[in-house]
Specification:
The mean pLDDT is about 80.
């Protein structure tokens, strides 16, 4: 992300270009994946009826059956709409990008795709932006203009904080969104341990973690002595990338951080998607949804 303030015309142009791109993806490839995975998860009890051959045994209402002496099954109707909440990290580390795209720009594009998929399926979408504080909350609503506002905020919102406190954002989510929702948590996960908040949120909501990475945060090029700066704290360190041990140690630490995050997500049965700046994100998203659909079918 650039620090140069953009004009309203430039902002509108960028939002419009992103809308055209992501809506095209939704219409051509993605909406069916979204619908098959999330629609039908929320079911409302409607009534009971007499058991018929072929009905699932697990659908039998044993209380009614015992009272009337005849087998009855529960009837459910699919919830007409879901609530989707995008929880997006806008801390300073998201401004980094070693390619033409920053992590925050990738997060905005993915969020846009998910938002338009939800709107196409008649779902409500809300937004929480966070850094080391909750920066912005937009309650879930429907409609194109609402979705475009979400995208504008993700792309151009100027946060007050620079650090990252995911636990604060997740606690806020759990207090303010009381209905069980589909929550996409989009972050680079560069933060202190927040596994407890993840555990609580995954019990209350259908939580999907989307991790945004950049290759240069995992491997160093051999370009001699450079100065690295922590975008969130401003701390600087000078290192010699010409030293093989230094490059190896850097990669090992990055892999250790990634493994720790993966372990926490797996321990809490939280679905996760890993994306990288400069790479096509659609195959990773579609693979995730296909795998999740197959897993749900086996239940």
């Amino acid at each position: 992300m650039t620090e140069t303030r953009q004009t309203p015309a430039e902002i509108l142009k960028k939002i419009r270009a992103l809308e055209i791109k992501t809506k095209g993806l939704v219409q051509s490839a993605f909406a069916g994946d979204y619908h098959s995975v999330f629609k039908g998860r929320g079911m409302n009890f409607e009534d009971v009826r007499e058991y018929q051959p072929g009905d699932e045994i697990r659908a039998i209402d044993w209380n009614v059956t015992a009272r009337l002496g005849t087998a009855f099954v529960k009837k459910f109707t699919e919830e007409r709409e879901l609530t989707v909440v995008l929880v997006v990290d806008v801390s300073a580390s998201g401004n980094f990008g070693s390619v033409a795209q920053s992590k925050r720009e990738l997060a905005a594009e993915v969020a846009c795709l998910l938002a338009f998929s939800a709107i196409r399926n008649n779902d409500k979408v809300g937004l929480i932006l966070f850094s080391d504080q909750v920066e912005l909350f937009i309650p879930p609503k429907k409609g194109r203009s609402h979705t475009l506002r979400l995208i504008r905020e993700i792309l151009f919102f100027e946060p007050q904080g620079r650090g990252t406190l995911p636990s604060l954002a997740l606690d806020y989510l759990n207090h303010i969104v009381t209905r069980r929702s589909v929550v996409f948590f989009i972050s680079d996960f560069q933060a202190e341990d927040f596994s407890r908040a993840l555990t609580i949120t995954s019990r209350r909501h259908d939580l999907i973690a989307i991790r945004i990475d950049d290759q240069r945060e995992e491997t160093l090029p051999n370009i001699g002595i450079i100065t690295l700066e922590d975008a969130e704290t401003g701390e600087q360190i000078e290192i010699n990338t010409g030293d093989r041990q230094t490059r190896t140690r850097f990669s090992a630490l990055a892999e250790e951080r990634r493994a720790n995050v993966t372990q926490v997500l797996r321990r809490n049965n939280i679905d996760a998607i890993s994306l990288r700046t400069g790479a096509d994100y659609l195959p990773a998203l579609r693979t995730f949804f296909k795998q999740r659909e197959r897993r749900m079918a086996r239940r």
